Amino acid sequence: MTRQTTVMRICISCRKTFDRNHLIKITKDHKQGILFQKGMGRSAYICKAKKCYSDSKIKKKLQKALKTFLDPEFIDIFEKEITSYNDYPNKGI
Ligand SMILES: [Zn+2]
Fold this sequence. Notes:
Blueprint: E1 8-10, E2 17-19, E3 23-29, E4 33-36, E5 41-47, H1 50-53, H2 58-66, H3 74-85
Antiparallel strand pairs: 1-2, 3-4, 3-5
């Protein structure tokens, strides 16, 4: 018997609840620092809506959610990561 549960998480930007599979997970890993979609540690979730990840306050929100300081370069990496996830076809978010 398979147990299938939908894990719901809140986007830190728009505060809407989504199926975790539709969100990008950003984790502050204890050893490796900030990771996308993997890692162990404090995590924040953000949806794939452009207005969320390109929000000018997103870095602040992430820093607060992850309780860490993010490098200025982080936001470039973050945008690259998140737009690459957006490349999946026919996701009309
Ligand atoms: Zn959002």
